[in-house]
Amino acid sequence: MSELTVAAVQMCSTPEPADNMQWLEWLFASLPAARPLLVVLPECFAAFGSEDGSPYGEQLGDGRVQDWLGKQALAHNIWLLAGSLGIRTDAGDKITASSLLFAPNGQRTTRYDKRHLFDVDVADNVGSYRESSYTEPGQQIVVVDIEGFNIGLSICYDLRFPEHFRAMAEQGLDLIAVPAAFTAVTGKAHWQPLLQARAIENQCYVVAAGQCGQHPNGRETHGHSMVIDPWGQVTSDSGKQLGIIVDSISRQRLNDVRQAIPALKHRR
Ligand SMILES: O=C(O)CNC(=O)[C@H](CS)NC(=O)CCC(=O)C(=O)O
């Protein structure tokens, strides 16, 4: 396949999975017609910002959100990257923040667990983020083939670690997926330049899907879901609007950029 249509969903999730799934079903009713189509959902699409800070989690392969994801992928004949969903660890006391990929046949094919956890103080109305208090970090990078394109997986705070992406680029990378829930404060300062840097230095596409707006617990997220081409140009940007952006990635464009500046071959 020489082209793949990609879409990023921007949403303002609540802590209640049923609400978020209902909203997404409404959105999916107007998906673009092109196939193959990869749809990327943001971090914590199914449940975000509970009042008491407790994360939503399911057993792997067993839960209403995972059931729903498989059904949606099959019903719409799409590759569905579920940005992050809490998956309970074997010990049961924590979750992993896991990106699950569902194939158009409805089967889950891939799992990536967020490696870098956001233990950071931010000058916003939350103040202190301590993701590691309820999350186990992932140990492995994951690159997955979708319709002949190599897709590298990352989640939110991973974006700040160029070595995560370079390690994936060693395997040949065509597209980086960045489901996220960047804070409004850090997003305004760093989100777009970080995304563009990852695209430029790895000479690949980036599709980034974000949470956006004011969530019920008062948290504010940055939005600006976007698609960036291998030259670093932003080709779609959601701004602060909820909904879906659609773009396409092309093998020809990847080849052209890598031929114009063979930087990946000049590494030392
Ligand atoms: O835990 C949840 O409820 C949902 N997860 C998140 O919101 C995560 C961990 S707190 N947020 C980030 O990684 C923000 C990164 C960021 O904003 C930056 O790098 O500047």
Please describe what this structure looks like.
There is one protein chain. The chain has 268 residues and is of the alpha/beta class. The protein has a single domain (3-261), classed as Carbon-nitrogen hydrolase (Nitrilase/N-carbamoyl-D-aminoacid amidohydrolase), CATH 3.60.110.10. 23% of the residues lie in helices and 31% in strands. It is built from five helices and 16 strands. The protein has helices spanning 17-28, 64-76, 162-169, 184-202, 251-260; strands spanning 3-10, 37-40, 79-88, 95-102, 108-113, 119-121, 128-130, 143-146, 149-153, 175-180, 205-210, 212-214, 220-222, 226-228, 234-237, 243-250. The strands form four sheets. The protein has a six-stranded mixed beta sheet with strand order 5-4-3-2-1-16. Strands 8-9-10-11-14-15 form a six-stranded mixed beta sheet, covered by helices on one side. The protein has a two-stranded antiparallel sheet with strand order 6-7. The chain is globular and about 50 Å long. The two termini are 32 Å apart. The mean pLDDT is 97. The protein binds N-(4-carboxy-4-oxobutanoyl)-L-cysteinylglycine (KGT). Residues 43-44, 48, 118, 129, 131, 156-157, 160, 181-183, 186 line the site of N-(4-carboxy-4-oxobutanoyl)-L-cysteinylglycine. This is Amidohydrolase. Residues 4-251 form the CN hydrolase domain. Keywords: Hydrolase. InterPro entries: C-N_Hydrolase (IPR003010), C-N_Hydrolase_sf (IPR036526), Nit1/2_C-N_Hydrolase (IPR045254), UPF0012_CS (IPR001110).
